[in-house]
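A reminder before we start the practical. When you read a complex entry, don't treat the lines as separate problems. The point of joint prediction is that each chain is placed relative to the others, so the output describes one connected object in space. Small molecules and nucleic acid strands, if listed, are placed in the same frame. In the example below there are four entries. Take a minute to note the order of the lines before looking further.
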Amino acid sequence: MSENVYTQEAVANRFRDFLAANGLRQTKERFAILRAAYDIEGTFTIEDLQQILLLQRFHVSTSTLYNTTLLLVQANLLIRHPFSSSTTHFERITDNKPKSYQICNICHRITHIKSKDLAAAVDSYHPRRFGVSHRILYVYGTCPKCESAMRKKLKQIKNSKHQ
Amino acid sequence: MSENVYTQEAVANRFRDFLAANGLRQTKERFAILRAAYDIEGTFTIEDLQQILLLQRFHVSTSTLYNTTLLLVQANLLIRHPFSSSTTHFERITDNKPKSYQICNICHRITHIKSKDLAAAVDSYHPRRFGVSHRILYVYGTCPKCESAMRKKLKQIKNSKHQ
DNA sequence: GTCAGTGCAAACTTTTTGCAACTAC
DNA sequence: GTAGTTGCAAAAAGTTTGCACTGAC
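Here is the predicted structure of the whole assembly.
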């Protein structure tokens, strides 16, 4: 628990084990994708990943990217984020602490919540017969900007009616 | 807090207020969609909604469904669920208690977690300057079925190598 | 050498957009 | 009457699939 099991080397080993355990082949594409994914801090899309690999002069097809990210999610090395409507976002797992996000229902802005208490609270839940890889809390609502924009709009509407 | 603010009548009123506050029109389509959405227990897709309205002999176009569900999310009357890869799932908000889901990384099966302690823990978080509409906790991992399937596969691979 | 994995393009699904017709205000 | 809304169809965006070629075992 004390040592970091999420270094590039450690994750490569874990992926290697996962592939072996499932009778899957160890291709250079798979490890290149893993490396690229773990170089990215924060979330990324399939397209981001392809761009980054392109910059490294490493070409991978879209199908391989979809295939490999799926494996990495199954190997508990990537989080598959659901927030955006259209595109799927991924994120490396750098520790086993729960992640929390605040998402505005209107502008869809996503903010990372840094609360030790919240993390501890979420972490206290241990289901039986379910191997937890990670926990994500999404707090939805209206952000200050959108809140004030809505109030402003409301005022304008009221004023125009009283003209 | 004690009275239920999520009855069909109450949500219709809240939607009415939201529309008025934003200078949007009160169309029969919008209220029909809200009513249908609140008739559904559990999650649903845009297509589900269209089917249900069709059964009620109420025709709405796909664009209207997308438009209206977006408004309902902004009005804090619907949750936009992110779990499935392809299709977006929605769910009515029936209370302000946090919801928790357990999701298998492999088979993508979704289970509702019913834990009072967990709910209380999540609920204890109150961000400043952010109007919380609801909180959702996703616990990712491997479900018992997939866990045992993986072990079985691993055994087979080991055996075939020792042949 | 064999078969899983990759790349490419085509297919498919879901969501968005443009524009004419409609209707809430 | 006017402008916001709807419906339809077409387009766009994201993801999946089929098949020939390649390379890990």
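Discuss with your neighbour: Residues 1-95 of chain B form a domain with the Arc Repressor Mutant, subunit A fold (CATH 1.10.10.10). What might explain this?
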